Amino acid sequence: MYLGDTPLAAAWSTALRARDVMTGRIVNCDPDTPREHVARLMAEERIHCVVVSGVARSVDRLDWGVASDSDLLRAALAGDESSAGQLARTEMVTVQEDTSLPDVARVLLEHEVAHALVLVGTRPVGVISTLDVIEAMAR
Q1: What is the value of pTM for the model shown?
Q2: DSSP assignment, residue 135?
Q3: Do 124 and 19 form a contact (C-beta atoms < 8 A)?
Q4: How far is C-alpha 124 from the geometric centre of its chain's CA atoms?
Q5: For the chain, how long is the longest CA-to-CA vector?
Q6: Residues ≥6 apart with Cβ < 8 Å to 115
Q7: How far apart are CA 39 and CA 60, in angstroms?
Q8: pLDDT tens, 57-116?
Q9: What's the per-residue H, E or C state across 33-69?
Q10: In which order are the strands placed within the sheet that holds 49-58?
Q11: Mean pLDDT, residues 6-20 taken together
């Protein structure tokens, strides 16, 4: 997806980076955290996702995942008592802190996700969402 010289591209300052609009606090939990506790965390923190650390991606690989509000709703409607690790089906999409906002938007759209973990090297420092990007566009 190329935004080119469209009005949308012009609305963004390429000087804005992920670090400028991300949420600098990462709310996370362990994979065995019960669904109800994940829901409580989201409600209390007023967030739409919880980062799940140590999700098994293969026999020898642990990774980050995300349990989103949509994942919780799907599980609740299905009567599923999933843990956070089971809800975090999708690998966490990441961007570097110096990634431009148009590039963040491209990554989120390409992966069809609403949140990305913001990294400095390999260290997580925040979360950026589609709403964060939209709020920056509105400024």
Answers
A1: 0.78
A2: H
A3: no
A4: 12
A5: 48
A6: 48, 49, 66, 68, 92, 93, 108, 127, 128, 129, 130
A7: 29
A8: 554 544 778 899 999 999 999 998 889 988 886 667 899 999 999 999 999 999 999 999
A9: CEHHHHHHHHHHHCCCEEEEEEEEEECCEEEEEEEEH
A10: 28-29, 49-58, 61-68
A11: 70
